[in-house]
Amino acid sequence: MAQPAVTADARLRFRSVFIAAGMILAVVISLNHTDTMVWTIIHGALGWLYVAYFVVTHYQLI
Questions:
Q1: Which DSSP string corresponds to the chain?
Q2: Within 13 Å of residue 60, how many CA atoms lie on the same side as its CB?
Q3: Which of 29, 43, 48, 56 is deepest in the core (most CB within 10 A)?
Q4: Global pTM value
Q5: pLDDT bucket at 34, cuts 50 / 70 / 90
């Protein structure tokens, strides 16, 4: 039996959820780290870029 193809609607939904998760994670990190709404809004708009920056600058990965 062939597996059903992933529809464009499912891809769009996944993309939206992925972007929203990055935005939420960035807002939570920013609120815990800076405690200012201006930076929280900026970091929320940047989403995953801020999350990646935070991980690289605040955690030693190796």
A1: -PPPPPPHHHHHHHHHHHHHHHHHHHHHHHHHHT--HHHHHHHHHHTHHHHHHHHHHHS---
A2: 1
A3: 43
A4: 0.71
A5: confident
